[in-house]
Amino acid sequence: MTPPDDAGRDSFVFGAARAAARAGVIASLLAAAVLFGTPTRASASPWTPRPGHGYAKVWLKWLPGFGYLDGRGESTAFGTYHEVFANAWAEVGVAEGVALWLHAPLAQGFVLADPRPGGDTRAVVGPGDPMVGGRWRFARVGRFVAAAELGLGVPLATSRAQGPVFARETPHAQLASLHIGSGVFRGMGALAVGYGWDTVYAAGSLGYVLRSGGWDDVLTWTAEVGGRFSATLSGRLRATGWHPVVRGSAPRGESPSGIVNGTAYTGFGLEGEWQFVPRWYLGMTIEGGIAGVRRQSGGPVLSLFAATQF
User: Fold this and answer.
1) 224, 227, 232, 233: CA torsion to nearest 10
2) By the 8 A CB rule, do 62 and 82 touch?
3) Percent of all residues in the chain with a pLDDT value above 70, rounded to a whole number
């Protein structure tokens, strides 16, 4: 296998270097992974496509939520909750070692049941907050690469609360409110490194997210390893962290979606990918939180994706 550098990528590197919600990631939040406001899993990679080349990816994410994890990390059962999102990612090389990218949450669907006697079930659908950015690969030594990345997120989704979230047990105390948009701008900067062997690679990144509206900044990181199992099958395992840095004056919120000030997590993702024809790929990802999960629904996150190189 060709090592994952800019000069010679193949299907494994395509999926590996850009494994798509890091940050996005993820996720429904990685405790409920690909957190809103984070870079998607396709970003925070040190590899860049050649000028005039790139890739595009679409994925469908489903979170069957259970147990609301509040700001103290305590879990409480609440009504039936689902998230179903459709996302798109595109990246193109514009110069040697330089690429531009776009993450577009095409549609976000939320379903929340009121567990109180006579309570109803609400469904909310709307766009997400897109993010645009660029990556500059500033170092390449053999199979080692390093890159810097910048991104800007724009608040398009409504920041108004979509209704209260109640505990399942009597007396049905209100736990949180459902939020589907942050209402704040996000500026992201990150450094990423990677190294590719013949059939295995490793990569990692460290980033910082500035947010408007008095929201806390966020320190974020990723680490992943991947490998090729055959000419058409590959897989990868990643860990991701999203850690607020107390700075702003805005109050910390509570929402099963995780789209509030103060959301935090450390999570993992396991992904498999199949190249079914040249330059076209299908894959599946499962993600979840493993530590420090705050202000979001628990539950696994399942994603199906299709991607192409050009």
Assistant:
1) -70
2) yes
3) 86
